[in-house]
Amino acid sequence: MRVAVINYDFCKPDKCNLECITFCPINRSGSKAIELSDLVKGKPIIYEETCIGCGICIKKCPFEAIDIVNLPDEYGEDVIHRYKINGFKLFGIVTPKRGYIIGILGKNSTGKSTILRILSGELIPNFGDPQAKLTTDEVLDHFKGKEIYDYFYQLYNKKIRVAHKIQYVEYAAKYLKGTVNELLKRADQRGKIDEVRELLNMKSFWEKDVRYLSGGELQKLLIAATLLKDADIYLFDEPSSYLDIRERINMAYGIRELTKNKYVLVVEHDLIVLDYLADLVNIIYGKSSVYGRVSKTYSNRVGINNFLRGYLPAENVKIRQEEIKFNLKDLTDLDFNPQALQKVIWTDITKKLESFYLEVKGGYAREGEVIGIVGPNGIGKTTFMRILVGEIKPDSGEVLTEGLTLSYKPQKIVPDYDGTVQQYLENVRKDILSSSSWFYEEVIKRLNLHRILESYVKDLSGGELQKLYIAATLSREADIYVLDEPSSYLDVEERYIVAKAIKRVTRERKSVTFMVDHDLALHDYIADRIMVFSGAPGFYGIGKTPQTLSSGMNEFLKELRITFRRDMDTGRPRVNKPGSYLDRLQKETGEYYSL
Ligand code: ADP
Ligand code: SF4
Ligand code: SF4
Fold this sequence. Notes:
Layout: E1 2-6, H1 19-22, H2 25-28, E2 34-37, E3 43-46, H3 56-60, E4 66-70, E5 79-82, E6 89-91, E7 101-106, H4 112-119, H5 136-143, H6 149-156, E8 162-165, H7 169-173, H8 180-187, H9 193-199, H10 215-228, E9 233-237, H11 245-258, E10 263-267, H12 271-277, E11 280-287, E12 291-299, H13 300-309, E13 311-312, E14 317-318, E15 342-346, E16 349-353, E17 356-360, E18 363-366, E19 369-374, H14 381-388, E20 406-409, H15 421-428, H16 438-445, H17 462-475, E21 480-484, H18 492-508, E22 512-516, H19 520-526, E23 529-536, E24 540-543, E25 547-548, H20 549-560, E26 564-566, E27 573-575, H21 581-589
Parallel strand pairs: 6-12, 7-10, 7-11, 8-9, 9-10, 17-24, 19-22, 19-23, 20-21, 21-22
Antiparallel strand pairs: 1-4, 2-3, 5-6, 11-12, 13-14, 15-18, 16-17, 23-24, 23-25, 26-27
Helix pairs in contact: 5-6, 8-10, 11-12, 15-17, 17-18
Bound molecules: adenosine-5'-diphosphate and iron/sulfur cluster (2 copies).
């Protein structure tokens, strides 16, 4: 079977010679595989039944608007939804199980949010026919005899109630009015408002108006409101965005505690959080914006490992060309040279900014080194970076290296540019889109930025904007790169593409990168040393001197009272369940982070 997708934003019949139609061999032989249609405002549609998938139209289209994939015939039985003619197609659905938290893991734009919308009843599936407006009875007929039938029967007959936390928290904020306390009092159908406030640590912004909440506070508000609903199924779309590590673990614990014996589904890209939170995992694989298919249900450990390996044994499907490995063997060509020159050197530093006091211990960073920075929000990490490059003068102490150049990606990403993606990138670096460079192949293309060159920056999604700004930051020649939360809005694969690019740029240009991020698996993957920031967010922060990955992580986790072990098969870090045998043992021996 075939899935033919046309990106109608890219397709411009008035600017091309209709090559897709003229060169199609089926059309030339007198049949019809592709033609202009009023159904899509005079643009072409492809008939998947007659198209032979030769791919000629894909190559001929000057705007790369067409994508066609040939799939095994058995996929046809699993079609669940298609929003538009020649649009993205979803195969398969996740079956919720009472008493289990199911994690949904996969690339962006492969249908994860669609699945949640179908399971919440917000979207009625059409089984591949975008023009069909099915009734719920027709949907039930379709699922008759399948395991999922009972679930939809209860849902459509209002025997189960749904609570859904959507992905983009900024979006919800527009519709909310009042303080956190007022909003949650109204939402509290379970009489658990005090418990939720404690579990999610919300006291500090309890009386704040929703208009003034930070991203992390807004995220907690929406998670709290979802948990307070008296529902049977709880759906969480990316609950960890904007939260720091302590908050992520609290969130995961809070969800586990308050959803016992319920149906729970969570879409999550932070593997450590997903691993800690989920009992079972469904992987969604496919081609972004073209098709997505739901895997069989795996135990969380096996599912995450299969995902990292890029191979699903039960399906016998390769979902990615290469494995994502944690033992750094895939980066050996970029091994760090411990003899490298010290490039950035600073003494003990102090700085007072209104009511915030920052103290940083003296240290250095060597040529080609990636320093991972960990610590809560509002603890002074960005302030330290600004001191390093001379933007702010410290009250005491100094940076001993002068005249260093900086390339910086801030935490908050705003689309404040008027032109297209191509104009933006070429403004930063003229030859950035030259197709012969590794940067074009490994960064621009793998992040799919080459597909959106003509889009306007202000129209990009959060993930696209993040990728654009990271690529632009890394393309500049600089002594110091600072990437503040590069992982927000990115899926797991994009995180590792970005991580590899960071490492390569830093090594090859003999620069120094400071990477601030709350995804610990990412630090584990590329950081050569770790700098730990601790203190009381918003009041005072202490930055320790950079130390080895293991001692830095150990110190950081000790403070959080969390222990990590290694997965035997993949080497990925895993959180021990609090109070488990390993958790107790590792705390006793002081090994919070095992190598
Ligand atoms: P992080 O990057 O770790 O989030 P920041 O350096 O941005 O931390 O901020 C740390 C604290 O310093 C915050 O409480 C912030 O409000 C405060 N702060 C940062 N810059 C200034 C400034 N220019 N004036 C006053 N307070 C500031
Ligand atoms: Fe032209 Fe490409 Fe659209 Fe065909 S798909 S009409 S070739 S822009
Ligand atoms: Fe025609 Fe081949 Fe394109 Fe199908 S893939 S529409 S057969 S050119």
